[in-house]
Amino acid sequence: MSPYPLSLPDDTQTMKLKRQNGGTGPFAPDVPQEIVDLIIDNLQDDPLALRSCALTAHNWVHRSRRHLHSLVRIGEYYVNLRRYASPPVAQYVRSLDLYMVRTDRGRQRTTTESLWKMVARFQNLRSLVIRDFEFYRLSPRRSEVLLNICSRLRSLELRHVHFADPADFLSLVGACPQLRALLIEDGHFYSSITRSRAEEQTSDYLEGCTKHFPGSGLQSLTVGGLNSCYHFETAVDVWVSELTRRGFLRELTLSKDSPDDCEDILRAVGSSAIDLRIARCHTRAEKPARTGIEHCTNIRALSFVTSLVNSPRRSNPAWVIHFLQQLPSPTGSPARTPPPLRSLAFELHWSDKDSVDVDFLTEVDHILSSRQDAFGGLAEVVFAVHRHLSPKLQLMETPAGSLPERTLAFKMFLRVCLGTHLKGLVARKGCSVKLVFPNDGDVLRVEARKFGEECKH
């Protein structure tokens, strides 16, 4: 008899293997399914690895397909229609990007009959992006398919779309009772109507909506550049006015070309309670007379998406000043009616070649400190930095080091810089200034610069 045992103890045994499908399938590790799901989730951005996982074991197929087929792009990319001919595979599709374009072969549209049959199988669709689409050309059967998949949507994006009239647009939004987020950018009406006629048609349609109001479940609405079609913008303004008046809309994001383009829709918001987010505005040579924010007397949270830097891209953050200066104070006595604004946020984008615009920071600090009638109720001011650091470039004048060291130096530099030029805001009682890095999840509290600390720009 051998002096050595034939088997190792239970605590040091190698991982057991088991056969799948009744002993006829391939071997798979005896690992809890929760661990397998976590491993596959970490591979969601690697299609080749997901395909390999789907072929490994039977209990790996469901999780792998969930990531492989979660997003389908049609029109701009080639799509194998046969892949989604089976309902068991089509059930994994959660997001659809539908792009109606003309192909080089025969100049025919990519939205063929076979494609619409495939779209009808996506019964678990939650997100839909529609680009360059002409809704007024859809046949009744295709319109029925589209409205059917819209009934379960949670997110909808409409980019460069054409509707027949305001009723056509509002009927599509009304067909999405579970819709929570909507983006509209560059919409048009096929029929040639005036702005007054568009306003009248929109009001008539909304008055007839007694059971379900279009967009009643919306939590976030993003409105892009609609300047090329003024009658479509008028219809959206009337609809937004009713949404805010009835208390349905919580957050509004405006992505306009210039500050004065926001005036009409902000006038429609009026005194309704709203969280406002403004992005992508570019100031013109002349100062805009009005931004429209003077009509909004009940803004609870205000956010700006900008750079706050002097960069080679010549980004000018001065448009933020116009909104801060024209923000109205609440009606009534200031002692009895505190300002409704509680949160102010700046979403910043940074690259290695940028330098801080200290004049702009000083101007922001002056406005926030002097205008107590509008900013006296602020509880927090957040600077969220989306940075991009190159490993080959040095940060400011710090010595070369590893990327984590340079990243830490970058964060400390911004913290000291904000504490230097936001003296009045940092010294205010009851208001906290935070520096947030969403990429890392780090949150730093900005404090006044201490004696002896140096801030190089």
From TrEMBL:
Gene3D superfamilies: Ribonuclease Inhibitor (3.80.10.10). SUPFAM superfamilies: RNI-like. InterPro entries: LRR_dom_sf (IPR032675). It comes from the Eukaryota. This is F-box domain-containing protein.
